[in-house]
Structure formats: structure tokens, C-alpha cells
């Protein structure tokens, strides 16, 4: 998993390197529709990676396709008035929370030792989640519970970094995708 600071640093470095590169020409450029399909979640194959590495035109088209896919995702989820709903986790002292009516996210809070807790945030339909997007969970006091790019199964796992039981702070939680709120 890549945290947001590492992701931003790597992206800036890649942009700097690619900004000084000459393009290979139109014969190596794939049409925008090709990159649109790739941005919808299709796995980046070796040939795609080569085309992206060697052609700024392909890179620009792919970045534009990713931008459009993120905008689609934001408009789909941001207006659903998602509200957190807490439920007891079966057979556990932990807790589970879904965000309704959108069932795309789930939060689990599990004990991890005597006085520590694990925060598990899941994207249930990871194939619909924008590639490279950063998922964050914050409470009303500004505490950052978890942040990062979900793994291939859709999970972000972080240790609770604050004092006390995190279940005390679940009244007002908000999920953000690339700092865009998707819950009220």
C-alpha cells in the first residue's frame, strides 16, 4: 500500500522525468477510447506500460481518461446522502459500519492487543474504484483514521493512532476520495 505522501512524491518525480521526454510520434499513439477503457479498471498490461513510458501523448490521454473516470465516480457517489450505520460484528468485540444507501464502503474496527485497535476500511467493488485514487476516513474532530490507496482486494488497514476506543468517535465519520467528500 502506498500512503498519500509517498504517492505524491512519486507522481511529482514521474511528471518531472516525463515532461522532458520527446514523443515517439502518432504511429505509437493509441486513440482516446483505448485509454478510456483502460481507465475503467482494465489491468495495465506490459504493452500498455511500454506505450505509457515512451509516449507523452499516450500519457496525456491516459491521465485524461483517469480524470474522467474519477469525475464519473464522484458524481455517482457524492449525491447519495450516504450515512454511516453501525452494527455489531458477529462473534467479535469489534464493530462494523456500512455507509447507506451506498454499499461501496465498509469500516471494521477490531481489537489488536490489549489497548490497540485496527481500522479496516474496505471498498467493496474495488473494480469500480478509480485507479490510483486515495481513500481517506476522518471523523468530525479532524482525526485521520485511515488513508491510502486500497490494495487489490479493496482494503486499507491502519492502526488506531489516538488514545481510547475508536468506537466512541463513530457518530460523525466522513469518507473522502482524493479529498473529495463522498459522505456528508
List the helices and strands and how they pair.
Blueprint: H1 4-19, H2 32-39, H3 46-54, H4 56-77, E1 83-88, E2 95-100, E3 105-111, E4 117-123, E5 135-139, E6 144-148, E7 155-159, E8 173-177, E9 180-181
Antiparallel strand pairs: 1-2, 2-3, 3-4, 4-7, 5-6, 5-8, 8-9
Helix pairs in contact: 2-4, 3-4
Label this structure with key terms:
184 residues; 4 helices; single chain; alpha+beta; Immunoglobulin-like; 4-stranded antiparallel β-sheet; 30% helix; 2 domains
What does this molecule look like?
- The structure is a single chain.
- The protein has 184 residues and is of the alpha+beta class.
- The chain has 2 domains: 4-77, no CATH class; 83-181, Immunoglobulin-like (Sandwich).
- The chain is 30% helix and 26% strand.
- The chain contains 4 helices and 9 strands, in the order H-H-H-H-E-E-E-E-E-E-E-E-E.
- The chain has a 5-stranded antiparallel beta sheet with strand order 1-2-3-4-7, with no helix packed on it. The protein has a 4-stranded antiparallel beta sheet with strand order 6-5-8-9, with no helix packed on it.
- Helix 2 (32-39) crosses helix 4 (56-77) and helix 3 (46-54) crosses helix 4.
- It starts with a helix and ends with a strand.
Unreliable parts: none
CATH architecture of the largest domain: Sandwich
Mean pLDDT: 77
Based on helices, strands and strand pairing, what is the structural class?
Answer: alpha+beta
From the 3D structure, determine the CATH topology of the largest domain.
Immunoglobulin-like
Distance between the termini: 26 Å
Strand tally: 9
What's the assembly state of these chains? single chain
Order the strands across the largest sheet as they lie in space.
Answer: 1-2-3-4-7
User: Quick one: CATH class of the largest domain?
Assistant: Mainly Beta
Number of helices: 4
Helical residue percent band: 25-40%
Tally of individual domains: 2
Please write the string of helix (H) and strand (E) elements. HHHHEEEEEEEEE
For the largest beta-sheet, the strand count, sense and barrel status come to: 5 strands, antiparallel
Radius of gyration: 19 Å
